[in-house]
Write a structure and sequence with these properties.
- The chain is α+β, with helices and mostly antiparallel strands.
- The chain has two domains: about 50 residues, 2-Layer Sandwich (Signal recognition particle alu RNA binding heterodimer, srp9/1), CATH 3.30.720; about 50 residues, Signal recognition particle alu RNA binding heterodimer, srp9/1 (2-Layer Sandwich), CATH 3.30.720.
- It is about 20% helix and about 35% strand.
- The protein contains two helices and seven strands, in the order αββββαβββ.
- Strands 4-7-6-5 form a four-stranded mixed β-sheet, covered by helices on one side.
- About 20% of the residues are buried.
- It holds the Pfam family 3-dmu-9_3-mt.
Length: about 120
């Protein structure tokens, strides 16, 4: 749930960044509904072949995304992993830089520019 109408920008970034990703369905707020016209009421999309849903919150609230919940994505290719990590890190906050942490040859954790938390891992 994004605030300030940022869901579309986040979706644009994610769909352009992750392989096997596409928009499945999007419903936007229209005149007379609680959200600003054109913002996302609900969007269903896939990233790396997995289905997700997001929305723009029409209500301002004091909470946002937190790294206590993150999306874990595994890559077979170190090049794909590094590319995605670099894109998600831009304007975001690296919590754990890409490195060998013992449980994985290459792992990184980042909060992207929208505050969404991602754990990126190289599959064994």
């Amino acid at each position: 749930m994004f605030q300030g109408g940022k869901a579309q920008a986040a979706l644009d970034l994610y769909l352009a960044t992750f392989p096997d990703s596409r928009m499945l369905r999007v419903e936007r707020y229209s005149e007379g509904e609680p959200g600003p016209v054109g913002t996302i009421k609900v969007a269903v999309f896939t990233l790396c072949g997995r289905e997700y849903m997001c929305s723009d919150s029409p209500i301002e609230h004091k909470f946002s995304f937190t790294p206590s919940f993150s999306t874990f994505v595994e890559f077979d290719s170190p090049e794909d992993l590094e590319r995605v990590f670099a894109i998600l890190s831009e304007g975001g906050e690296v919590l754990m830089p890409l490195d060998n942490y013992g449980f994985s040859q290459k792992f990184g954790w980042v909060n992207d520019r929208f505050g969404v938390s991602w754990q990126i891992n190289l599959a064994s």
